[in-house]
């Protein structure tokens, strides 16, 4: 049963970012299913570790993209990323110590955070990239540039 439902309104138009977002949705759904099926802590830990790893990689990818494009909202966006990573790390520690009772509230939180972040921060970032692309000069191809 899916809790994180991918919607076209989440599309940013940047293929790598969109693919990584869709993968995050899939992992959240895997975690949700494991919780509903009352899987063992070791199974939940494995899925949550995968989610944490993929989240870190995705954030690093987005942050590199923002730096490469000189995105003016980089520091604010990175703070938002860092805030979620701190929460994920705390949850991971609780799960590792079996102090976190598996609950759908966890996957509800992750789903809401993803949707809100994509529709807010990520859409702003991509909009900036699109505006920059409109103003980049087009250099005609010549035999010296080939």
Structure description:
The chain is an all-alpha fold and 146 residues long. It has one domain (11-129): Four Helix Bundle (Hemerythrin (Met), subunit A). Helix content is 72%, strand content 0%. It has four helices and no strands. Helix 1 packs antiparallel against helix 2 and helix 2 runs antiparallel to helix 3 (74-96).
Secondary structural class: mainly alpha
Distance between the termini: 52 Å
Q: CATH architecture, please?
A: Up-down Bundle
- Poorly predicted residue ranges: 142-146
Assembly form of the protein: single chain
Compute the number of strand runs: 0
Number of domains: 1
Can you tell me the overall shape?
A: elongated
Total helical elements: 4
The major pleated sheet works out as: none
CATH class: Mainly Alpha
SSE topology:
Layout: H1 15-36, H2 41-68, H3 74-96, H4 104-135
Helix pairs in contact: 1-2, 1-4, 2-3
In brief, what are we looking at here?
The chain has 146 residues and is mostly helical. It is built from four helices and no strands. Helix content is 72%, strand content 0%.
Which short descriptors sum up this protein?
single chain; 146 residues; mainly alpha; Four Helix Bundle (Hemerythrin (Met), subunit A); 4 helices
């Amino acid at each position: 049963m899916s809790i994180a439902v991918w919607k076209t309104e989440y599309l940013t138009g940047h293929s790598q970012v969109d693919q990584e977002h869709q993968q995050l949705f899939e992992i959240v759904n895997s975690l949700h299913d494991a919780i509903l099926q009352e899987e063992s802590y070791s199974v939940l830990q494995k899925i949550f570790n995968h989610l944490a790893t993929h989240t870190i990689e995705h954030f690093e990818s987005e942050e590199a993209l923002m730096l490469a494009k000189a995105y003016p909202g980089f520091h604010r966006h990175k703070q938002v990323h860092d805030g979620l990573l701190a929460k994920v790390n705390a949850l991971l520690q609780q799960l590792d110590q079996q102090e976190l009772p598996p609950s759908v509230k966890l996957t509800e939180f992750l789903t809401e955070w993803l949707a809100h972040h994509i529709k807010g921060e990520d859409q702003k970032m991509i909009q900036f990239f699109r505006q920059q692309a409109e103003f980049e000069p087009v250099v005609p191809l010549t035999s010296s540039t080939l």
